[in-house]
Predict the structure.
Amino acid sequence: MPDKTPVPKMPREVWVLVSAGFVIALGYGVVAPALPEFARSFNVGVTAASAIVSAFAVMRLLFAPSTGRLVTKFGERPMYLLGLLIVAISTLASAFAQTYWQLMLFRGLGGIGSVMFSVSAMGLMIRISPPAIRGRVSGLYSSSFVLGSISGPLLGGALVGYGLRVPFVVYAVALFVAIAVVHVQLRNSELAIIDTSDPADTMPLSSALRIGAYRSAVTTAAIFGWVYAMRVSLVPLYFAIVLEQPDGVAGLALAAYACGDVLAMIPSGRLSDNIGRRPLIITGMLILTVATLALALTDTVAAAFISTFVAGIGTGMVSPAQQAALADVMFGHGRGGPVLVTYQMSQDCGTVVGPIIAGFLAQEWGFPTAFTATAILAACAAAAWIVVRDTSGIRAPQPAD
């Protein structure tokens, strides 16, 4: 049963990381509208322009194992700041790229920095979150990224009017400010201090894999990556090709998904602290399953908007509960570089592979087939959580299932 102890106060360090997360997501959204067109300004085709986006994700995936070792050796906070610094410098360099290959190189370097601060941020949030409010912390942190992702493209679209290089400069400056704020606010923090525990105390990946909840979390992370990438890549095409809607309507559909996502996150995080992680994850994945199947069966704009919004609610229910479950599994261990990296790599794999497979299914057999395949994967994730124990309330490392 979950603890009935008084709810502790949200640590100041959490608010610092939440604020930084919002700025990071906002800036990523700022450059998103400009990046493909900026790449095409070097006289390359659509495929080459799309490869610029993929380079970021591929470098995240390739550099993830090294990130785990660095976090284990030097601690989360230094690697978090270093990762942000790499992204800031690479983004500023992108603004002054003179060739397509220079832009490709700089964006790839940004992917390295991105995985460094992503893994480090997860590790920091796990260590500084009071056990009784892990779900609340996860919901708040996830919401900051979604809100930034919603706001970023709006700001980026306005900045593009001043030139395709301007959004990159604005994002870089914002990151430098975020680095300074995080450094000042966390340098004397007892919660965020470098973990100097013996490496033997680090949770081995083999131990985590013996825990059913961790295996389910890794599986769900891969499906989450697939779902997110499918939404970004296929849903706009579905609205344009099948529903014959202008690009602006497709953008509104993605905004509807994001709104459903963020509306569910904070309440779901709070609820997961009270009733456990599994009910929220299972329910959320089933909602995502039904909503995605509905999208596969609909041929009207109104129904497509409703199913997209409901799917966002489903993912919003899952995200904070799953991150809290990951924190539960790792509770009592000093550092968990390999454990966090494997989780992050799983999600990145889904992000890289999802659009390719889903795009192939849509091209060969139609969009309903791609959406149905995604719904089946979501149902499999729900099933994976049905057969494992809940993790809420863990106060020490648990035995295998």
